[in-house]
Amino acid sequence: MGYGVEKNAVEAARLYQEGANAGDAASHFSLALCYRDGAGVERSLERAFEHWLQAAEGGHVEAQAAVAQCLFTGQGTEADLEMAAGWARLALKNDAADAAELVARIEAALRREYHSAKAV
């Protein structure tokens, strides 16, 4: 962020990677943001998803919502509405911001998918 020091995205990403290597969920989350934005690392939605998933599995609530969003939209991973719904419900249970809206959007998509499959 550059508080008290010169802003350096490459060094920030390196430090987040060290924390992620040690299993720190918050570091995985921050590193995912770096990959999403191409800040200090080459932009990669796939790598962003991998780190969000690690953070989510480590209990990071915002990462749980990010994983749900990626699975819902297919960004950085293959879309999977059932898995997206599970992660979104967990994020909602853990009071993630905007999780209720995300759950509603995913469940609406699941209903549409179900009714489309039923009509065939």
TrEMBL record:
Source organism, top-level taxon: Bacteria
InterPro entries referenced in this protein's UniProt entry, alphabetically: Mitotic_Regulator, Sel1-like, TPR-like_helical_dom_sf
Matches recorded under SMART domains: SEL1
Gene3D superfamilies associated with the record: Tetratricopeptide repeat domain
Protein name, UniProt field: Sel1 repeat family protein
